[in-house]
Amino acid sequence: MRPGIFNPILYGKRLFQQFAVDTYIKIESSRLDYIRNNQDILRANQYQGLVDSWRTGVEDANEVGKRTVLSPTFIGGPRNMRRRYMDVMALVRKFGKPDIFLTMTCNPNWDEIKNELYPGQSPQDRPDLVSRVFRAKLEELKKMLMEKDILGKRKYKITCPEQYDLLISAELPNKKKYPDLYRMVTKHMMHGPCGMLNPLCPCTRGRTSCKNRYPRPFYDSTSQGHILDNQWVVPYNPCLLRTFNCHINVEACSSIKSVKYLFKYIYKGHDRASVAVREAGKKDDKGNIDEITQYKEARWVTPPEAMWRIYSFDLSKNHPQVQQLQLHLPDMHMVTYHKQDKIERVVKRPGADESMLTESNGKFWKPRKNAVYQVGRLVSAHPAEGECYFLWVLLNHVAGATSYRDLRTVDGVLLPSFREAAERRGLIEEDNTLDECLTENSLFHMPSSLRRLFATILVFCEPNDVFGLWTKHLDAMSEDYRRNNPNPSLVEQVVLIDIRNMLQSMGKDIRSFPLPRIDDAYDDASGIPREIFEEASIDQDPEDVGLSDSLNEEQRAAYEEIMSKVDTEQGDLFFVDGPGGTGKTFLYRALLGTLRNQNKLAIATTTFGVAASIMPGGRTAHSRFKIPLTFEDGCFSFTKESGTAKLLQQASLIIWDKASMAKRQAMEALDNSLRDIMGRQDLSFGGKTVVFGGDFRQVLPIVRKGSRAQIVDATLRRSYLWESMHHLKLVRNMRAQSDPWFAEYLLRIGGGTEEVNGDGDVCLPDDICVPYSGDS
User: Fold this and answer.
1) Which of 228, 457, 605, 766 is deepest in the core (most CB within 10 A)?
2) For residue 233, which phi and psi values (nearest 5 degrees)?
3) Cα–Cα distance between 216 and 233 in angstroms, integer?
């Protein structure tokens, strides 16, 4: 903004506001588009995983690792907000709970803003002025708090209510003695009226009282034409209010027990709006106008926020700074690389085998040279992570350690594991209950049951001394094998393979536990990923092979259309739509039986476990595809060289039943993952033949505290995949052929055409109800 130069944008009023928002959205969209379009270029993997892949002969870096996703460095992203929250909680752990919670709100009538307005303009017409003046005021406030100690020195702690009274006021000042302060309090620091006095106030809407607990008990007075008193005064600091002439709320927060909720509010992320779009005046048959036609969850961006982001002003800042310290076992740190790189170059490039915790030459820790004070935050670990957890325990209690070797050295003795080092230092206690459990069960149970119990203990009980339990109870777990084979090495290997298979069925890898290694010479599945070995070992029911001859006309048409795509390896998407009883599972069994009889891999998954139990070799989709709890990444976490990825690469058919009950984000994440591991970004699901099935008349996806619109938006029908699917309908009810009325009755209920009472409930006919009699 230069004097004497006409800038039409600054005179645009509402057009300027729209221009500001559009410009910021373009800037952010360009960044997100770059990340989205280059996700397949940058990849990441553990250093040790790269070394293993290189040694097995894999050369192209594109064949290993996983795609990178939205980085924590992307300001405003979910990972960025979570990292900032964890950083500030590290400060709470270091310095204790905060005493003061202070918020500052911009005053659009500041002289610095009004003096720069052009004739006919209001502050809302100049979001550039609003954001820049507010930032200048905010910087001055921070200077007063941090350098001038206007509220006292930062190292001081408030210890009594009288000290709070010196800093915080929640009453109307004397109008004659402090006229300016009185005017500012009545203008900026009065809440309401709300509650019964004003039910339409935002803090009361939909409630019987104010959500901020106003009015609060104090003395009487009158202001602004409403009968307001000290009960309605928002707590403030008189000095700060006089200085900045705006809403500055100063609250005492040291008594808050759950301080984490305070910072969750600060780092909750961007404002969002749920938008329902419908045709103006359109109503349904019953006169309602809340029928869902289109739903969209959108970001809420205001012009001042847009200008704030365009100017690159800070969204948040911590003092002192927090340094996040990575936690990983030796050579297990993450390495990023481009997909066109050769693995040998990545492994051998300078610094690839170094982490942020190691000195570049000797690979040991040393104090930082920078004199800037920082607070360290070590990434947490769970006891189920085994050695990584014990490394975390040691790092939190051992001062002055300079290397991994130093951490494992106790009283001059180098111990083989971090667990033993933690136990020798007295940081963990030996737990004998699991040993006693195995000893007691060995008296009554067969060896196979003991092996199952041992695997269960490894997964769910987090034993401290896994190798000790193994050594002590190996004889009891191997009695059945020792009876027929005197070779102790072979017996040990067979027991290990049994336990490995049990752990794999629970989703665990035996290599993550400190047990003896399995010799490839004894392992039938050596060199074959566990997931592929499991699918290839599924017992085939002879009846399933001939089920294709028993299909009805609808099922036959669907079967032939799907098999034509599988046989020609063209790949396609299908959705089998049919009410309960129309034979969807029967169709799946016919497909699985035919393909498995041809020694092809066919993956059978469902959304929940009960349905998986009635499909041959069925697994839940969450278990098979490693679906995470959240879908921030847009793809799953398995890497290209993992067993899950190799199984999906070799699968001829993927079936996902009850897909109508799963969130569409899960199917979209599977699509993105398959495009990546198949190397075919332009084809849905990487060119695989995928069959979804379900009935949208039944239970829809679960959205926590979600509205009807949000639940509908989470369904597969709202996905971009829906239009590209071939829809195969099954109508004939095979389960209730003897009672067609009941089948039609269920369809009317599911379709919403059955009559309901005034409360919207369906009334059951008397002939299908069991009358109540007595106590039965």
Assistant:
1) 605
2) -80, 130
3) 8
Q: Is there a single domain that holds both residue 112 and residue 215? A: yes
Distance, CA of 48 to CA of 296 (rounded, Å): 43
With H, G, I as helix, E, B as strand and everything else as coil, classify residue 729: strand
Ranges of H-type helices in 525-583? 530-536, 542-545, 553-568
Q: Judge whether residue 570 has pLDDT over 60.
A: yes
Does the pLDDT value for residue 410 go beyond 60? yes
Tell whether the model's pLDDT for residue 316 goes beyond 60: yes
| Secondary structure of 434-499 in HEC code, one letter for each residue | HHHHHHHHCCCCCHHHHHHHHHHHHHHCCCCCHHHHHHHHHHHHCHHHHCCCCCHHHHHHHHHHHH
Cis preceding-peptide flag for 215 (omega within 30 of 0): yes
Three-state SS for 409? Answer: strand
Distances (CA, A) of 733 to 493, 664, 739: 52, 27, 10
What's phi and psi for 602, nearest 5 deg? -130, 125
Domain span holding position 214: 94-266
Find out whether 488 and 475 touch, Cβ atoms under 8 Å: no
Structure tokens of 330?
Answer: 């030796």
Average pLDDT, the chain: 80
Do 74 and 151 fall within a single domain? no
Query: Which DSSP state fits 226?
Result: B
* Cα dihedral value 318, 323, 327, 333, nearest 10: 120
CA separation for the pair 116, 10 (Å, rounded) = 11
* 75: helix, strand or coil: coil
Report the alpha-carbon distance of residue 735 to residue 581 in Å, rounded.
5
Q: What is the pLDDT of residue 206?
A: 67
To the question of pTM greater than 0.70 for the whole model, the response is no
* Peptide bond between residue 193 and the one before it cis (omega within 30 degrees of 0): yes
Q: Are residues 195 and 208 in the same domain?
A: yes
578 plus 465 within the same structural domain: no
Could you give the residue ranges of the DSSP H alpha helices within 319-386?
A: 343-348
Ranges of H-type helices in 311-417: 343-348, 387-397, 404-407
Angle (deg, nearest 10), helices 488-505 and 466-477: 110
Q: How many residues does the chain have?
A: 776
Question: Per residue in 648-663, pLDDT tens?
Answer: 999 999 999 999 999 9
Residue 320: asked if its preceding bond is cis (omega within 30°), the reply is yes
Higher pLDDT, 65 or 467: 467
Which contiguous run of DSSP H or E holds residue 552?
Answer: none
Collapsing DSSP to helix, strand or coil, 646 comes out as: helix
Residues ≥6 apart with Cβ < 8 Å to 715: 660, 663, 664, 696, 700, 701
Identify whether residues 513 and 541 lie together within a single domain. Answer: no
Query: Can you tell me whether residue 249 is helix, strand or coil?
Result: strand
Does residue 106 contact residue 112 with C-beta atoms inside 8 Å? no
- Side chain identity, residue 755: E
| Separation CA 39–CA 263 (nearest Å) | 31
CATH code of the domain containing 638: 3.40.50.300
Domain count, the chain: 4
The two three-digit tokens of residue 733, written as one number: 């009810």
> Does the residue 598 lie in any domain?
yes
Beta bridge partners of 275: 296
Computed on alpha carbons and rounded to an integer, the radius of gyration of the chain in Å comes to: 33
| E strand residue ranges, 616-689 | 619-620, 651-657
Quote the CA–CA distance of 383 and 390 in Å, as a whole number. Answer: 8
306 and 244 in a single domain? The answer is no
Q: Looking only at Cα atoms, what is the longest distance across the chain?
A: 103
